[in-house]
User: Fold this.
Amino acid sequence: MKDTSLYSAGMTFPARLVLGADQFFKVMRYHSELARLAYRLAYSDGVKQGLQGRDLAAYVARSSKVYSDDLTVQANAYSVVVNETWTARSRNKSQTMIALVRELTGLEARKFAGIEEKLRSASRWHSVSEIPNFPFTTFAQMLSAIAAGRCYISVSSLGFRRTNLTSGRAQQAWGGFLSWVPFLVVLTSIVVAIAWRNAWMLLGIPAAAFGMIQGAAPVSLLRPILLSAQNDISIPLPFRLTAKVLLVLTSWFVGALLPSLFFAWMLFTDREAPAWIVASYILSVNAIRIFIARGTISLRAAVKKSETFFLFALSQGDCALCDSTTGQFLRPPERPG
Assistant:
């Protein structure tokens, strides 16, 4: 039987739904970016050949399919998704990072000793010096560069898959509770609707479901289209202005502010049902976002504590090293599958 202790062991049912939503949005974003890059290359090639009108359109339609199968174009599209969904540089200054890495607590040391051999077996490399095209020859050199602010560790949005390795039991229990919050909200909506005899309260169910999906989405499918539309001079001015307005409305700040303002207004104006619907969304989306954030924080801390875990996470496509100045990957992440 295959050992699954290193691969999403103990994930709750909601966590698997979050994983599915994460992958869905990433795949959709990847295919849209792949189509965009392929179209751009085909169009540029057709213009260079002097094609115009229907001939150019027919050429682009044929060539786009060819460019979509090009490994370089696919790699570029994948890089766009990775850059949009992986963590950026942490604002926290980590001058004590080396001490943190070298000195595990007694509990952490005992836990890690039991899985170290499994991590090594699942890793592609046994030391940093074995990694091809890696800018450092030792783990200590990499940590020194991170502490000096020259580079940083970036991790995937799927860090919650490794919480059975990176977190204690109490942290895992809290994360599990957060992942169940949308389902608790659904149950509460039913109970409240029956108790208050108000069927409108049941709309908290789709609100909680939408909040869960929104919280699990690592990337927006609409935002790239709006970004392109607002600066495209071939698009009429009213549509470009509309794109600018929608960009503002879909920003994280407005997305966090407006629901809270609506909830406060409805609550103080005795609109219980609408207030509960908005609250259902707020509770669900924030619970899932905190659940995901805790997973990425735990994963990033874990890869700095052990070379063995770093090599495991790197080989599994869970982490990568980035340049602090440019934000570019010093070595591209391993692509899963």
Notes: The two ends are 21 Å apart (CA to CA). The chain is about 65% helix and 5% strand. The first helix runs from residue 13 to 48.
